[in-house]
Amino acid sequence: QRQIKLIKRPKGTPTYEDFELVEGPIGEPSAGEILVRTVYISVDPYLRGRMNEGKSYIPPFGLNEVISSGVIGQVVESRSERFAKGDVVLGSLGWQEYSVVKDSSVRKVDQHLAPASAYLSVLGMTGLTAYFGLLDIGKPKEGETVVVSGAAGAVGSTVGQIAKIKGARVVGIAGSDEKVKFLVDELGFDAAINYNTEDVATALREACPNGIDVYFENVGGKIGDAVFPLLNNFARIPVCGAISGYNNAEGDVGPRVQSYLIKTSSLMQGFTVGNYGSRFGEGARELAGWLKEGKLKYEETITEGFDHTIDAFLDLFKGANLGKALVKVAEI
Ligand code: NDP
């Protein structure tokens, strides 16, 4: 079977030379294990951090090891009582066509509720990130203004819609006119800004006449900087991601934010979705409810073929995806 390994720690923006596509053994399941055929692979910005050495909230990938991420797969052979051949499962699995895993390391997904791929996006990690970051830290109230960056991506598009459900005015920041149109026309954002063609500070002042109460930070850098001068008193800033700096070889220095936080008594808090592990059930139920009621939409950008997994990952940093970026490896 084909597998993708990390063979070099990327310096700056990752390139194809940092990865290797190899042939490897499939393996046989022992008692309590299952053989899973990979169907969808989730490619995510946070994987870039795992390619660096050093301490973080999650250990780095080992060199010459198969990369792993969220995967939807189908059981093709079971030596477990918990799974039957044909079951569709979710787990953190390798970038390879088949995986032999312990039955306790994956869970079944309910395809009646939504197609399997949704468990890698709106009903999975990115949906839960949006849900807990926005509601637990951002705490938007009716009539408040919520700004979200990376707005047309997996997390950002869900954040904006949840904020709308909570009755906020929602302004998204994204990288193309197509994305801006999608946010306003399809997802019901009140306004959206193309940071590649507009002056973000000026556009934000226009789009947020009452200031900003919640800034859901997905990208950092200059876009984040433009938000601080517009914060209202007691604003909340869930810091979810800073993708604009993930490929910086050197540390990033921008305007200092302390004085803005002091002047407005604002709260800025970083988080990882893993902090909310004990409440995933609650989040997943609520997201599924909104999905069923038609209040929450989700979009996917699907790259076809295992061979294109690295392309799909590198595309994240070029903004090629609308909604969740996934690789489709096989049919269910
Ligand atoms: P997205 O679906 O949002 O994909 C990444 C997007 O980031 C691209 O489509 C692109 O959109 C944008 N982007 C890329 N480079 C830049 C740049 N230099 N400046 C501004 N925007 C850029 O990914 P996710 O929804 O999975 O993740 C969004 C953020 O949330 C990431 O920062 C990620 O690391 C973080 N995250 C954090 C988690 C946590 O637990 N804290 C969990 C999951 C994600 P565009 O065209 O608009 O530029």
UniProtKB/TrEMBL annotation:
Cross-referenced InterPro entries: ADH-like_C (IPR013149), ADH_N_2 (IPR041694), ER (IPR020843), GroES-like_sf (IPR011032), MDR_fam (IPR045010), NAD(P)-bd_dom_sf (IPR036291)
UniProt superkingdom: Bacteria
Gene3D superfamilies: Medium-chain alcohol dehydrogenases, catalytic domain (3.90.180.10), NAD(P)-binding Rossmann-like Domain (3.40.50.720)
Organism: Neobacillus ginsengisoli
Listed name of the protein: NADPH-dependent curcumin reductase CurA
Matches recorded under Pfam families: ADH_N_2, ADH_zinc_N
UniProt KW keywords: Oxidoreductase
All copies of domain Enoyl reductase (ER), residue ranges: 12-327
